[in-house]
Design brief:
Two copies of one chain form a homodimer.
Chain A: H1 2-7, H2 11-27, E1 31-37, H3 44-60, E2 65-70, H4 81-86, E3 92-96, H5 106-109, H6 119-128, H7 131-139, E4 144-151, E5 158-160, H8 167-170, E6 174-176, H9 179-186, E7 191-193, H10 197-205, E8 211-212, H11 217-222, E9 231-234, E10 243-249, H12 250-255, H13 258-292, E11 296-299, H14 302-322, H15 324-344, H16 348-359
Parallel strand pairs in A: 1-2, 1-3, 6-7, 6-8, 9-11
Antiparallel strand pairs in A: 3-10, 4-10, 5-8, 5-9
Chain lengths: 362, 362
Amino acid sequence: MKRRTFMAGGAAGVAGAAVAAPAIAQTMPEVSWRCASSFPKSLDALYGPLDTMTKQIAEATDGRFKIQCFAAGEIVGAFQTLDAVSAGTIEMCQSPGYYFVGKDPVLALMADVPFIMNVRQRNAWLYQGGGQQLVNDYVKKYNVHTVPGGNTGTQMGGWFRKEVRTLEDLKGLKFRIAGLAGQVVAKLGVVPQQIPGGDTYSSLERGVIDAAEWVGPYDDEKLAFVRVAPYYYYPGFWEGAPTVHYWIGTEKWNALPKSYQQIFNNAAAANNLDMTAIYDARNPAALRRLVAAGAQLRAFSPEILDAAYKAANEIYDDLSKSNADFKRIYEHLRAFRNEEYLWWQVAEYSFDTMMLRLRQRS
Amino acid sequence: MKRRTFMAGGAAGVAGAAVAAPAIAQTMPEVSWRCASSFPKSLDALYGPLDTMTKQIAEATDGRFKIQCFAAGEIVGAFQTLDAVSAGTIEMCQSPGYYFVGKDPVLALMADVPFIMNVRQRNAWLYQGGGQQLVNDYVKKYNVHTVPGGNTGTQMGGWFRKEVRTLEDLKGLKFRIAGLAGQVVAKLGVVPQQIPGGDTYSSLERGVIDAAEWVGPYDDEKLAFVRVAPYYYYPGFWEGAPTVHYWIGTEKWNALPKSYQQIFNNAAAANNLDMTAIYDARNPAALRRLVAAGAQLRAFSPEILDAAYKAANEIYDDLSKSNADFKRIYEHLRAFRNEEYLWWQVAEYSFDTMMLRLRQRS
C-alpha cells in the first residue's frame, strides 16, 4: 500500500522508484521459452491445458514469463520431445512418460503402466506420497526437471470389430496398442500394432487391424471408430490414470526466479486438476452420442483381465530383475497402491456403489 | 533478458529503470489481507492447505501479496466467517458453504449435501460444468466472490456405541451430526445433536450421545473416538465430496491486479487438489491404526441408506418449493451428477472394481 501512495507522489515517486527498481527487475526478468507438446491440437482436452497454463503464467507475471506452445510435429516429433529438452534445443515439453518407454521403461512408471491405480491415488502418490520426488531424482540423468500437469482419467479398452470373450478370441488379434500394454497383451497372443492415430480408422475399416485403443469417449468420437469397430470395451486396464508431465531443462528450471517456479508449479497443478475435470465433464455426453451411433459397450471378461494381470506382473518381475531403478520405483508405487485400495473400498468405492444403486431407482 | 542486461549497466541502467518502474509498481502493489479459517489448526489437513496456499502466493509475488491466516475463533468464530467477510471486517475466509446452511441452504449446495457425487465429479461440476459460475452469481448478494480451495474426499459415517442395522435401531439415537444431514436422519427418528468437536469424546463416553460423525480416519484418530464408540460406519452418505471455498470480499477481489487474481486462483486450485491428496495419502495408515486399536468397520445397511435417500429427496423437494434459487442450483447439480454416474460405471468404477478384485489375489 505504501508503495502505491509513494508512486503517486510525482517527482519524488520517480526518484524512489529508481532506487527500488533494480530489485524488481532482477526478480521479474523477461523469460521466453518454447514448449513442444507430444499431442496434436485436435486432442484439445490434452493440448488445451498446456495452452491455458501458459496463458495463466503470462498473466501471473504481467507478460514477463512467456511460453510459446507447439503441437506434436510442428518443431519436434511427438516422441522426440524429451531428447530435444535434454539437448537444450527447446526449454520444455508436454509429454506422458510412457511415450519414452522404448528409451527407458522407468519413465513409464511416472505416467502409467497396466493395473496400477486411479487418478486420485496417482495424485496422492505424486504430490503427497513421495512419488514426484522419486521421479525427479531419477530423471536428472536426462538433464530435466518434471512437474505433473494433467491426467485423462481411466481410459477405455478400445474399439473391436468383433466381440472378444475368451483368451482364445485374442489369439492373433491385430490390436493397435503400444508400450508396456502392448507387451502385456502380446503374452496373451495378441499381435500389437503401431499405427499413427490418423491412419487407424482406415486400417480398421479395411480389416488390416481388428481393434484399436485410443483414449476415451470424448477423444474417440472424433476418429469415428464406432462406424467400423462397434464393440467398445472397458476398462482400459493399462491406463487407469495416465499423468502427463511437463519436462523442463534442468539449467533452465534452476535459472528461473523462485517466484516464477512457484507460479509454474501451481499453474501446472491447477491444470492437472482441470484436465481431469475437462474429461470428466465431457465424457458422459460423448458416450451417450457414441451409444446412439451404435457403440456396443462391453466389459472385458474376468478370464481376460486375470490373464492380463498375471502377464503384467511377469513383465514387472522381469524388468525388476534387470533394472534396479525400475524395481525401486515400481515397488514404491505398488506398495502405495495396495494401501490406497485398502482404504478406497471403505469410503470412496462404497459411496460410488451406493450412488450407482440408488440412481437406478430415482 | 534485455532488461537484465540493461540493469547491469550502472548509471544508465538506473535511469532506464526510473522510466519503467511506475508500471511495475502499479501492477505489483503491496497487498496485505487477513483470512479467518472455520477450522482449528489441529485439523491440519484442512487448515494446512490454507497456510501452504498463502505462503505460495507470497512467494509468487516476491512477498508483495501477503495473507495472514487465523484459525477458527482466533479473530472470528467458525460460523461467523462469512458475516465478517461480507461486512468487510476481514478480507477473506476459508469455510465450507454448509457451515452457513442455517443462514441460507443454497450455500450448502456449493460444498456438499447428502447423496450427491464424488470428488472428481464435484470438481468437474465446479470448474468445467458451470457450477462455480452459478455459485459466484448467487453469492454476490453476500458481497463476496468465492474460489474452490479443498476437498476431504468421502467422509466416514461416524462412530457408534452400538451397531445399527435397521431403521428401528435408529429410533431415538442421539447422533452428533449437523446441517441438512441432521435433518435427513431426523426423518428416520434420529435425534441430531450439536456438540463442539472438543466435547464430543466425553459426551460419547458418558453416554450423553450414542454416536458422532467427524471427518475420516486421519482426523478421527486424533479425537480417539475408537475407545468409546468402536463401530465405525461408512460411507458418510451426506459428504461424498465436501468442497472448502475461499470467500473474498467483492471489492477486495476486484481491486486486485489481474496477475494477483490469477496467482490466487491457481494457488487455490493447486491446493484443492493437494488437500484431497493429503487425505488420500494419510487415511490408509490411519485406518490401519484405528482397526488395530479396535475399530469395527461396518457398512450402513441398504435399508438405512434407502430410507435416508428418500428422506433427503423429500427435503430437496420441500426446499425447492419454497426457494427458487435452491431449486435452480440443486437441479443443475443433480442433472450433472446423473450424467456423471452414467459414465462412471463404465470406465472409472469398473477399473476400481477390477483392482479391488485382483489385489486380493496378488
